[in-house]
Amino acid sequence: MLRGLTGAGMGALSGGEELIRLAGKYGFQSVDVDALPLIEKLGEEGAAGLLDEHGVSIGSIGLSVQWRAGEAEFLEGLQRLPDQAAAARSLGCTRCCTYILPSIDSAPAHFMAIATRRLRQCATVLGAYGISLGLEFVGPHHLRTHWRHPFIWTMEETLDWVAAIGESNVGLLLDAYHWYTTGLGTDAIRSLRAERIVHVHINDAPDVPVEQALDNGRLYPGEGIIDLSGFLNALHDIGYRGPVAQEILTAEQPAESPDQLAQRSKAGFDNVFALAGLPY
Amino acid sequence: MLRGLTGAGMGALSGGEELIRLAGKYGFQSVDVDALPLIEKLGEEGAAGLLDEHGVSIGSIGLSVQWRAGEAEFLEGLQRLPDQAAAARSLGCTRCCTYILPSIDSAPAHFMAIATRRLRQCATVLGAYGISLGLEFVGPHHLRTHWRHPFIWTMEETLDWVAAIGESNVGLLLDAYHWYTTGLGTDAIRSLRAERIVHVHINDAPDVPVEQALDNGRLYPGEGIIDLSGFLNALHDIGYRGPVAQEILTAEQPAESPDQLAQRSKAGFDNVFALAGLPY
Amino acid sequence: MLRGLTGAGMGALSGGEELIRLAGKYGFQSVDVDALPLIEKLGEEGAAGLLDEHGVSIGSIGLSVQWRAGEAEFLEGLQRLPDQAAAARSLGCTRCCTYILPSIDSAPAHFMAIATRRLRQCATVLGAYGISLGLEFVGPHHLRTHWRHPFIWTMEETLDWVAAIGESNVGLLLDAYHWYTTGLGTDAIRSLRAERIVHVHINDAPDVPVEQALDNGRLYPGEGIIDLSGFLNALHDIGYRGPVAQEILTAEQPAESPDQLAQRSKAGFDNVFALAGLPY
Amino acid sequence: MLRGLTGAGMGALSGGEELIRLAGKYGFQSVDVDALPLIEKLGEEGAAGLLDEHGVSIGSIGLSVQWRAGEAEFLEGLQRLPDQAAAARSLGCTRCCTYILPSIDSAPAHFMAIATRRLRQCATVLGAYGISLGLEFVGPHHLRTHWRHPFIWTMEETLDWVAAIGESNVGLLLDAYHWYTTGLGTDAIRSLRAERIVHVHINDAPDVPVEQALDNGRLYPGEGIIDLSGFLNALHDIGYRGPVAQEILTAEQPAESPDQLAQRSKAGFDNVFALAGLPY
Predict the structure, then answer these.
(1) If contacts are CB pairs under 8 Å, which of residues 31-70 in chain D contact chain B?
(2) pLDDT value of position A279
(3) How do residues B183-233 score in pLDDT, each as one tens digit?
(4) What pLDDT sits at residue C280?
């Protein structure tokens, strides 16, 4: 597995370039940054050179297409997707991810039909450029009732959705926080085939009843109570070898500098990988 | 367009053979009967001969696969589908239909995902045998709250579902009662391309507020208040040339004999087609 | 049906704007021009205004994606497709077409597999913007052996390919010259459902043995020996109501001015539509 | 990886039951037998019990659908597929395989289009029952010209075909003989993701120029010159954990009894797995 960083939890980053430098400095192997702005700024060669220089690859880009909005907005986003996918491909990135809100304001069955068609269209475009689409189910209980109607939030529902979309390059983004807040154990991971997992997020949860764990109340790996050792071992055992990227959503920006936060993240990763008995 | 009959509204029929005979006797051109039992009883040649003798074709078979049930039941039904499709094909039938309950007990978004995948699987099997799958949206207001959660019931939602299923042989079953109870006008029909319509049901509604029109409170064509003239003309104008099959769901079986009911149906069709100015 | 023009056969046109003006001047209702360059030059409002002013719509854009080339070139083209599709959509165009060379240099089975996947990807993008993809089979005998291996050139093969691609927005571009040079009669057209036809080309063939009719030896409608009356009537009878666009490929640019050629084209259309007994 | 047997190379077997018994007796973990006839003879419980008793699972069933024949024959086969798939599923089998003839008599591009659609239909049915479809490319040189036109025979072409079929449950059957006769090395295997491999065949080739290795001239593993150690190690390294099933096609039935041949097979597997340094 690759140790990865996202911008979430890294404080006031000046941009993707800083994240790449910090990742390299503290021994991370992948970063989740969007490829197109990087190339627009540095050129394809420059961007590839920067990644090489710091020994990191791009783990995943984010799906920028607004698939939850009106059709016009969706189509505008779809217009930009091939450029983003081509940029990712040119830097060797093979993943693109989006998350699923567990509740929505619009009628859930109708929205599911629309979103299924839209995500299939996105997956087809991404697939042309060799990129998989990962869907992240979102577990925190408070979000299940935040909007008017429940949508979906379990791994099983998300796998059923992946089957409904029906493209071979669609799978899960498995996030430790959502795995924990939906009450899953390691057997749930062991029931998966590794190829169903497009991407992995790691983070930790405070010692509060699981129903009270807030989406933006996440901790750095090893600082909380999630069984990350079981999480990582189950992923390793089923053969997952992709990135495990830290994503720490918090109510307020942490006070430390990005460099200090990267150092803290490294300590967390060292800790949980050591506890898991997994090679670093 | 072909004038058609279904068993619904024909009283205590002894079976498909009687429906075929009555259809022929009263000038109907198609019947909705399942092809497989007919062939199992009469042989393929016998069944084709019976249809020929009475000058009728099979408009549509019903989708017998339980796509709303548990997975085991769904798969059992799917096992029988190719035989049913092959039987239909051997008698020249190119349509298979199912209806959508406007409310359900299970979680709507999750069920939509499962049902999308299942109906795609059904459509693929049907498509191999040259058969289209028609989805009937169901309009009566009381059914929208009959089960725990709203599902979908409008034409627009159903078209979005057809797009989500994503197979080229899936379209609408347009039923006059559901067209009426969902408040559509002729412009809604005129907005469709004919090929999106797999099958059509005709019937009429009592003179009560539309919110009170019950699913099993239907009348024979021309005996109620639906603008069937507009309905038929809009279908004709967009180029629909398939069956228009009478389907009369009632709370109690009508007292008349099947022969009397077929005669009454013929009178209704004569009436509404004449009013519509459409050739008979 | 809509009387349409393409640039082929119109001489030394200065561009799409001139074609639009000439179409309007001589009573044509559609033109095949690419929407994106028009919008880039005139703005969306300007382009729409120009079409309105001359009473013409865009019949079809051309598929610019190089689906016969190497993968890199294909992907570059795919990157531009959403912009082209969005431009077409914004001007009300719902068709995009490409042709199939009847022979190829690469191994035919392998190329068919690659092209099937690529055209599905194109069709998915186009479909998102409400646009259908028409595949034109190409009949002239000399092209069947022009490259090393035979590929496909009959209507039946092309329909089988449409089924292999498997997207609901893919169908045929039916060209009178290819209909004629593949030896089809009106029954072949009558066997089609109108929705399988995305677009139609009209032109005529010289009075030479059909095996000697050259792809770039086409005549204006009514100046040759193709049974255009049968062709148009069959299309009309199955319910085709889209554009019938003139496409005249010739070895040398005709000597007349675009205006004279548009006038000559109008005379041809008047002639063949009158012979066919079809409303103008 | 699971050590597996097929009937090919086991002499005059009385049927699937004998293969199961011999597999168990000589330490094999999977057998390739069709599930439906086994269940028809022994009942589902009896069949499952027999497999359990001998400690073997079913590696793969064969695709019985005639996808290379005329449409009527194809559809007849498709009618039986759900029963076969359901039977396989009920015994825990998740694979179904078919092979690709490297040359054919019909026009290759057209046949590729037809076969793509047919295999997609088969894959959809199989997928409903949780079964993957493996396509076996066939390498021996003499078969490339045995029928009139070349079709496809390389791994790369087959992967392109898998992409054209476009269903997520379709992948490769990788056979050591075809890997060898198409000139592939271990890097070709290492370029694959394990999930693209549905099933594996093992066997060996005589010490003749590779162009002269006949399809029915195969040897038992370890008795020939194929680098089976490299083959197995590459499969292991990319994470393949499914069956590796012996398939020995010979011009004449071997003279030994099935028991002797199973013993000889066991010796071959012991030998090549030991050389490969892989756990037994």
Answers:
(1) none
(2) 77
(3) 999 999 999 999 999 999 999 999 999 999 999 999 999 999 999 999 999
(4) 63
pLDDT at B280: 63
Return the number of other C-beta atoms located less than 10 Å from residue A168's C-beta.
20
Chain C residue with minimal CA distance to B194? C195
Tell me how far apart the alpha carbons of residues A256 and B237 are, in angstroms, rounded to a whole number.
70
- Give residue A280's pLDDT: 64
The rounded distance, in Å, linking the Cα atoms of A9 and A262 is: 9
Give the H or E element holding residue C72: helix C71-90
Does D127 contact B at CB distance below 8 Å?
yes
Q: Which of residues 195-214 of C touch B (CB under 8 A)?
A: 195
Per-residue pLDDT at C18 exceeds 80: yes
Measure the CA–CA gap between A151 and B35, rounded to whole angstroms. 40
CA distance A161 to A155: 10
**C-alpha span between C190 and C234 (Å, rounded):** 6
Beta-carbon separation of A127 and C120 below 8 A: no
A3-60 pLDDT, tens per residue? 999 999 999 999 999 999 999 999 999 999 999 999 999 999 999 999 999 999 999 9
* pTM for this prediction: 0.96
The distance of A118 to chain B (nearest Cα, Å) reads 8
Report chain A's mean pLDDT, rounded to a whole number. 97
Contact A82 C82 (CB under 8 A): yes
Segment 156-185 of chain A within 8 Å of chain B by CB: 157, 160-161, 163-164, 166
Chains that touch C (3 or more CB pairs under 8 A): A, B, D
Chain A: partners with 3+ C-beta pairs within 8 Å: B, C, D
Q: Band of the pLDDT at D279, cuts 50, 70, 90?
A: confident
- Residue B263: left if φ>0, alpha if ψ -120 to 50, beta else—which one? alpha
B194 touches chain C (CB under 8 A): yes
Tokens for D110?
A: 């057209």
pLDDT confidence band for B248 (50 / 70 / 90): very high
Q: Which CATH number fits domain D2-276: 3.40.50.2300, 3.20.20.140, 2.60.120.680, 3.20.20.150?
A: 3.20.20.150
Joined together, the tokens standing for residue A119 give 């995500």
Closest Cα partner for A68 from A16, A111, A129, A124? A111
Distance between A210 CA and the closest CA of chain B, angstroms: 23
Structure confidence at residue B152 as a pLDDT band (50, 70, 90): very high
Name which of C109, C117, C150 is nearest D152 (Cβ-Cβ): C109
Residues in contact with D72: Cβ distance below 8 Å, sequence separation at least 6, in sequence order: none
Q: How many CB atoms lie within 10 A of CB C19?
A: 23
Q: Averaged over A159-185, what is the pLDDT?
A: 98
The vertex-C22 CA angle with C17 and C24, nearest 5°, equals 95
How many other CB atoms are found less than 10 A from the CB of residue C72?
A: 9
B193 contacts C239? CB cut-off 8 A? no
- Per the DSSP assignment, residues forming a β-bridge with B199 are B173
State the smallest CA–CA distance between residue C77 and chain D in angstroms: 19
Residue of B nearest to D79 (CA): B82
DSSP SS3 for A245: strand
- Report d(CA C259, CA C15) in Å as an integer: 13
CA A60 to chain CA centroid, Å, is: 7
Inform me whether the C-beta atom of residue D239 falls under 8 Å from chain A C-beta atoms: yes
Residue D280 — pLDDT band, cuts 50, 70, 90?
low
Reported as a single tens digit per residue, the pLDDT across C195-219 is 999 999 999 999 999 999 999 999 9
Whether D125 sits inside 8 A of B124 (CB atoms) is yes
With a pLDDT cut of 90, the percent of chain C lying above it is: 99
Q: Smallest Cβ distance to B168: which of C167, C239, C241?
A: C167
